[in-house]
């Protein structure tokens, strides 16, 4: 269901995102020593491409095949430094302790009692590595006229 929903979202436009890397990524990662990075919900790949250009080896994961095909087509120059992978990260956790940087930007992570998907992302960070988790403030998601979040 989520895969079909995401694919339909990407197919509905030639390009969904700007093609620019997320600003927080640029600010927070610019001074880190490149290593292995995981881009969680990479979308059309702008963050993965930016990381690869800076010398990172990137595993870029998304549930949408359409997004991944688009990302790979835009990233031929960094071929070999980005592995594009289709997976549902709420079902299939990434490998444990494998990444010096786990970069999560605007990834829809539903709250679950066992927090399994979140734990999977935390566990993917190598010892001494970095988890960069960026999301919307709840207040920004409230539609005008609707009640504030509880
Ligand atoms: C709001 S977009 C953000 C894309 C990109 N990180 C960015 O900041 O431009 C969220 C991305 O997560 C992907 N996604 C959603 N649920 C997913 C899941 N369960 N597993 C893997 N990717 C997922 C979507 O297909 C989409 O590309």
TrEMBL record:
Pfam families: Methyltransf_25. The keyword Methyltransferase applies. GO terms for molecular function: methyltransferase activity. One of its GO terms (biological process) is methylation. It comes from the Bacteria. Keywords: Methyltransferase, Transferase. Signal peptide: none annotated. SUPFAM superfamilies: S-adenosyl-L-methionine-dependent methyltransferases (SSF53335). Residues 38-129 form the Methyltransferase domain. The keyword Methyltransferase applies. This is Class I SAM-dependent methyltransferase. It comes from Herbidospora galbida.
């Amino acid at each position: 269901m989520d895969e079909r929903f995401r694919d339909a979202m990407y197919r509905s436009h030639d390009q969904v995102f700007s093609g620019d890397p997320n600003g927080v990524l640029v600010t927070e990662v610019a001074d880190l020593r490149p290593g292995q990075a995981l881009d969680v919900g990479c979308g059309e790949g702008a963050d993965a491409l930016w990381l690869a250009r800076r010398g990172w080896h990137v595993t870029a994961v998304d549930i949408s095949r359409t997004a991944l095909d688009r990302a790979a087509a835009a990233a031929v120059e960094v071929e070999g430094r980005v592995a594009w992978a289709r997976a549902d990260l709420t079902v299939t956790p990434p490998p444990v302790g494998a990444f010096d940087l786990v970069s999560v930007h605007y990834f829809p992570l539903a709250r679950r009692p066992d927090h399994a998907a979140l734990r999977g992302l935390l566990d993917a960070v190598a010892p001494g590595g970095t988890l960069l988790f960026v999301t919307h403030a709840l207040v920004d998601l409230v539609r005008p006229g609707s009640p504030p979040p509880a």
